[in-house]
Amino acid sequence: MEKNKLVLPNKEKKVLLHCCCAPCSGGIIESLLESSIDPTVLFYNPNIHPEKEYEIRKAEIVRFAKKMNIPFVDSDYDQDIWFKRVKGLELEPERGKRCRVCFDIRLERAALFAMEHGFKIFTSNFGISRWKDRHQVNKSGIRAASRYPDLVYWTYNWRQQNGSQRMYETTKHEQFYRQKYCGCIYSLRDADLRSSKERKISDPASKS
Ligand code: SF4
Hints:
With 208 residues, the chain is of the alpha/beta class. It has helices at residues 22-34, 51-68, 79-85, 97-116, 134-145, 163-174, 185-202; strands at residues 14-18, 38-43, 72-74, 121-124, 152-153. Iron/sulfur cluster binds next to α4 and α7.
């Protein structure tokens, strides 16, 4: 596959990359390194439920960061904050208001970490997934960056220039664990509902 060089805003050389999971971030990390950009991975995902799933997803990205020899920052699993802020949005669909708040929570933490640790640029892998509204993600990132002077959220479209294809290829060759839902308890509920409907369609005799 053709390798495209990435260029950070203001030609910076290091970036804080908020990662939600290995499949969504593996190809991005490879592309950054190939472009001589130093990524630091920040894992702050109090949305992920249950805790066992959180640990599995974290372990996968830790494993990859080690392999690529890049810094990994393990942030808090403060679910109470997450549940408090999404209260009342439990029935929202994916890409709706709950997701906006969920991106805000995580990117506000990333912006704070960036400011406290001398990063001028930060970004996230969220927008690479076709399940996400990348404009919604970018708006959250820009809002979070605007809290601090001179901090920039990089709105790069990770799906372009074979980004989506690379995501699948890297996931395959690294044999990453592949989750079946976005992350929160509500996305797990919706994924379960979807598969139960699909089961009924493929087996109309089934009553479960
Ligand atoms: S569906 Fe995903 S992005 Fe939306 S609130 Fe749940 S975990 Fe966050």
